[in-house]
Amino acid sequence: MRPSRWPVRARLTALYAAAFLVAGVVLVSVTYWLASRSLTRHVDARGSHLDSDPQTADLVRDEIATYRSETLSDLLTWSIFALVGALVLAVALGWVLAGRALRPLHQITDTATRVADRSLHERIGLTGPDDEVKELADTIDEMLERLDRSFDAQRRFVANASHELRTPLAVNRTMLEVAVRNPDASDDLKQLAPRLLATNERSERLVAGLLTLARSEQRVVERSAIDLAEVAATAVEQEHHDALERGVTLTTDLHPAPITGSPVLIERLAANLVQNAVRYSSSGTEAVVRTGRGDAHCVLQIENSGAVVCADEIDELFEPFRRGNGRASTTGIGLGLSIVRSVAHAHGGTATAHPRANGGLIVRVELPDP
After folding, report:
1. Which end of the chain is more exposed for a tag (fewer CB within 10 A), N or C?
2. Topology classification of domain 224-368
3. 250 burial via Cβ count (<10 Å: 0-12, 13-18, 19+)
4. What are the two backbone dihedrals, phi and then psi, of residue 304, each rounded to the nearest 5 degrees?
């Protein structure tokens, strides 16, 4: 792998090691040069006193030269060994220091990942000296604050608009029901009224879904103790009649799963999951609802049979008004899984789905322990 593709920590460590190696080579070279000059100067000084006896002087000079050569050789050898050992230590220390230097960036990355997966309410809040990294974290926090305000305003608009639409829709439904019960109503009105009532009912469900979605994307401030097993059992009981009509068998495997959160939103989450499992299951098949505890989280999982869903379509199922293969003919409004994921994120959890090989989905919601 080319160095340009290495992780930042590995590149910083390599940079530290390279700088230390260059400095070490320069230090060894200078030390060797100074030692060589010093020995040469001392040899010349000692040799100047031996001119009275040429034979002895030559012998002594040879011995001194040999000693000088061996000394410089030993100096160079041990310097190289010391440099290699120090280089290994420098690599280890460089790895540790690079990790400490990158720790604030990891904090920024982790927070950005959580914000992307859950909500915009969390901030980095990096502490420390006012350096470039803190400036980056503060800039990201300011950006998240502006985005949070913008999305909050958008959610409030959707919630207010949905709330305002509920009244005229309710009035329309009441007027249609009264008109149909009128003995003097015309045959055309009696034929048209059921269609108008069905359209009005669909609009009411859409508005209610949008209102729930807008509320679920806000912060959950007031929390209560909830058992996912009890909530799931209630949702299964509510959908039991519809399941019988569609020929779907609802099976439960419920174990205690205590969490804290908004009871209204959690009940809506469970109801949406069970409704989807019933509506999108093939007749004569089984839908299984499970709850339990995992590592630091509680799980609500629903598995159903139905049309084959491609893995590439899974993310689209959680988008508002999106439906997967074979799902457009149902009476749903396309907000079920969007509300599920939004409620899960509002409670600090996750909602994921996986296609079954023979058709259908496995939807898994994980919520943190209280």
Report:
1. N
2. Heat Shock Protein 90 (3.30.565)
3. buried
4. -140, 160
**Angle at alpha carbon of residue 219, lines to 217 and 223, rounded to 5°:** 120
The C-alpha angle 175, 176, 178, rounded to 5 degrees, equals 65
State yes or no: pLDDT of 364 exceeds 90: yes
Residues 6+ apart with CB under 8 A from 333: 202, 205, 206, 209, 321
Q: How far apart are CA 177 and CA 193, in angstroms?
A: 8
Top-level CATH class of 132-216? Answer: mainly alpha
Domain regions of the chain by residue span? 3-117, 132-216, 224-368
Better pLDDT: 5 or 272: 272
* Tens-place pLDDT, residues 172-185: 888 878 877 777 77
> Residues near 365 by Cβ (< 8 Å), separated by ≥ 6?
269, 273, 299, 300, 301, 340, 344, 349, 350, 351
In DSSP terms, 237 is beta-bridged to none
Instruction: Give the three-class secondary structure for 337.
Output: helix
How far is Cα 51 from Cα 251, in angstroms, rounded to an integer?
111
pLDDT, position 330? 47
Contact 303, 288 (CB under 8 A): yes
